[in-house]
TrEMBL record:
Annotated Basic and acidic residues bias: 1-13
Gene Ontology CC terms: mitochondrial intermembrane space
Gene Ontology biological process terms in this record: mitochondrial respiratory chain complex IV assembly
Gene for this chain: LOC114446359
Region (Disordered): 1-21
Organism: Parambassis ranga
Full protein name: Cytochrome c oxidase assembly factor 4 homolog, mitochondrial
Family matches, as InterPro entries: CHCH (IPR010625), Coa4-like (IPR039870), Cys_alpha_HP_mot_SF (IPR009069)
């Protein structure tokens, strides 16, 4: 009997998990899984620093891009309001 991968995206559990949904919107899902897999294999976060750094950088890029997008939307809506 073969067991399913813990990151099998066809699983119903992941569809209901708000953390999984949030991470999937960032574009950093594969890096998140790499951290999880490293931790599962080594049970030592110090060994997984490369994966953690890559995931952190991806999340920071997403957050910065999102902040820029929100600032542009705010500026656009402020400019379109009559004074």
């Amino acid at each position: 009997m073969t067991s399913a991968s813990p990151h099998d995206r066809s699983r119903k559990d992941d569809e209901d998990d708000p953390v999984e949904q949030m991470i999937s919107r960032t574009g950093c899902t594969e890096l998140h899984y790499a951290v999880q897999e490293c931790m599962a294999e080594h049970q030592d976060w110090r060994v997984c620093q490369d994966q953690v750094r890559a995931f952190k950088a991806c999340m920071m890029n997403y957050q910065n891009a999102r902040k820029q997008q929100l600032m542009k939307q705010h500026q656009t809506s402020a400019e379109s309001k009559p004074s």
